[in-house]
Amino acid sequence: MNIKQVIPRELANEDIAEAIEHYLSADAKPAALGFIEALEQCYAHVGRPPGTGSPRYAHELNLPGLRSWPLARYPHLVFYVEHSDHIDVWRVLHSKRDMPAWLLDVAAFDTGDAH
């Protein structure tokens, strides 16, 4: 089984930084570190069998190939698209957000290989 490189977009990195800052501002350094660990585990998972993520939002938003995978123990979803040579992480969003609105912003600027 080939492991694909997981490449987060700028917006995904901003989402990650925002989540970490939230935990740190709440004086929850262990939670911030746990979030990073859960994210690393997620990236390792989607890099192996990327088709295991949920296609729910791909169907809802007519965005073929879009998948999501939840972070273990954290209320966040990682949204990604598989390409022939890598996994393109679009967003890392808190599950309470309006997913369609946040994802359509990315899709509007998608060139198919932005990273």
From TrEMBL:
Keyword Cell membrane (UniProt): no
InterPro entries membership: RelE/ParE_toxin (IPR007712), RelE/ParE_toxin_dom_sf (IPR035093), TA_system_RelE-like_toxin (IPR051803)
Gene3D superfamilies in alphabetical order: RelE-like (3.30.2310.20)
Recorded superkingdom: Bacteria
Pfam families linked: ParE_toxin
Keywords for this protein: Toxin-antitoxin system
Claim: Ubl conjugation is one of the keywords in the record: no
Annotated family: Belongs to the RelE toxin family.
PANTHER family per record: TOXIN PARE1-RELATED, TOXIN PARE2
Name the record gives this protein: Type II toxin-antitoxin system RelE/ParE family toxin
Natural source organism: Candidatus Accumulibacter meliphilus
